[in-house]
Amino acid sequence: MRLSKLAGKEIINMHDGGRLGVVAETDLVVHPETGELESIIIPNHGNFFSIFKDEKYLVIPWQAIKKIGSEVIIVDLNSPRNNRDRLTS
User: Between 23 and 50, whose confidence is greater?
Assistant: First the structure.
């Protein structure tokens, strides 16, 4: 799949149905040697206190992506391997 095909797709967590963001609002981490996607980084806009602190980001490992549809990307962030609390500053 081409990177341009991911643009504009909403990212949805299959565990709770929550909307995490849109690929246009994200950064993609690409392995420098293989060119494979390693993770998607989404700004955490849902935290009220982020106005007063450094902005936080949610890192979604590529292994957490379960399905890429025509309009959405379904991810599983409830499994122990893909803990939803993976926020970094």
Answer: 23
